[in-house]
Amino acid sequence: MTLPRWPLLALALAGCGSSPDAGTTSQIASGERIFRRCTACHTIGQYAGDTDGPNLYGVMGGPIGERRTRFSYTAGLKSLGGNWDAKRMDAWLTNPRSMVPGTTMAFAGLPDSKDRADVIAYLSTQGP
């Protein structure tokens, strides 16, 4: 199985300062473990539906605030425009309310940059 190149790009842009071999299977596995916290509100399967939060399959590289047409995104998130890349996802995972005041996402954020880079690496493997 060939892994996508996203994990290495995610690490570089997230600025976590990890070793050059980051983006490896172990980083992705760590991201998957950390992502389990997110499953309280999000699904990740290709054909899974939305729950309290949108399904995150294919989120990396996808448009912000409009990717899941059946999900009701907040006006603040919709107003960001652009696509989810590692830098924007890192800011979001750091503190969603700081990035988008008025967001309905109750998650306080991941303070550890390595945890964020690992989650981004994992999310980057979950999509086309």
Task: Output the keywords.
128 residues; 40% helix; single chain; 6 helices; mainly alpha
Please provide the count of β strands. 0
How many helical elements? 6
The largest sheet is: none
What's the rounded overall pLDDT mean? 85
Beta-strand percent range: under 5%
Distance from N terminus to C terminus (CA atoms, Å) equals 14 Å
Approximate helicity band: 25-40%
> What is the radius of gyration?
14 Å
Overall 3D form: globular
Secondary-structure element series: HHHHHH
Show unreliable segments.
Answer: 5-22
**Which structural class should the secondary elements be placed in?**
mainly alpha
Oligomer classification:
single chain
Task: Characterise the protein shown here.
By secondary structure, the protein is mainly α. Helix content is 40%, strand content 0%. The protein is built from six helices and no strands. Helix 1 (6-14) packs across helix 4, helix 1 runs antiparallel to helix 6 (113-124) and helix 4 packs across helix 6. The longest helix is centred in the last third of the chain and has 12 residues, at 113-124. It is globular and about 35 Å long. The chain starts with 5 loop residues before the first helix and ends with a helix. Residues 5-22 have low confidence and may be disordered.
In short:
This protein is mostly helical and 128 residues long. The chain has helices at residues 6-14, 25-35, 75-80, 86-94, 96-99, 113-124. The radius of gyration is 14 Å and the shape is globular.
